[in-house]
Amino acid sequence: MTEQVRVREELRHRAYHDPLTDLPNRAGFHEAVARGLVLLDLDDFKHVNEVCGHSVGDEVLRLGGDEFALLLPGKRGLAEAGPLRRRC
Questions:
Q1: What is the pLDDT of residue 48?
Q2: C-alpha to C-alpha distances, 7 to 11, 24, 64, nearest whole angstrom
Q3: CA distance 58 to 37
Q4: What is the value of pTM for the model shown?
Q5: Between the CA of residue 82 and those of 29, 40, 65, 78, what are the distances in Å?
Q6: I need a surface site. Which of 1, 12, 27, 45 has the fewest CB within 10 A?
Q7: Residue 31: beta bridge partners?
Q8: CA distances (Å), 84 to each of 13, 24, 43, 56, 67, in order?
Q9: Cross-strand partners of 69
Q10: How is 65-77 classified by DSSP, letter by letter?
Q11: pLDDT over 70 for what percent of the chain?
Q12: What 8-state DSSP symbol labels residue 79?
């Protein structure tokens, strides 16, 4: 790896990560969202709580009553999969 390539990669990493925690910063988060964000709206999510219990329902990050988001880093061009059906 040439010095120029190493420096470029280091600068890119610094641009997208917090210097103290090395976690993605706001720019890194937005870049990851642009590459792999899936928003799900689950019909009848109440059923999960009723069948599997509230502790299982609480494990799901929810933005609203029956919506949550998945961030899939490294995924590109996710095809629309259609409805997913799964029991607990």
A1: 79
A2: 6, 19, 42
A3: 21
A4: 0.45
A5: 26, 11, 20, 11
A6: 1
A7: none
A8: 36, 30, 11, 18, 14
A9: 39
A10: TTEEEEE-TT--S
A11: 70
A12: P
